[in-house]
Amino acid sequence: EVQLVESGGGLEQPGGSLRLSCATSGFTFSNAYMRWFRQAPGKGLEWVSSVYSSGRTLYDDFVKGRFTISRDNAKNILYLQMNSLKTEDTAMYYCEYSGSRGQGTQVTVSS
User: Fold this and answer.
1) Which tens digits make up the pLDDT trace of 85-107?
2) Could you give the CA distance from residue 42 to residue 36 in angstroms, rounded to a whole number?
């Protein structure tokens, strides 16, 4: 059974940083194409970033240069380092694998 557990969210000021983690189990993480999504209040699910098993990364334009996706294949953990946070980054963040998502972790950016 695929399990994804996100953590690391919280309240941060604009310009601050947070690192999200996604602990995974139930599949071969090192071979997996992984993604981060987010959903702001009243809005739809929005793709944020992806990482291939090769390590190649992709970012949406609104986070490019501020967020970094990475993976630890030894620990089966996916990360999202978020720097230079903006109020518009406020959302529930989810990691995703093959159509499965975790419960999410809330990120709130506010002064």
Assistant:
1) 999 999 999 999 999 999 999 99
2) 19
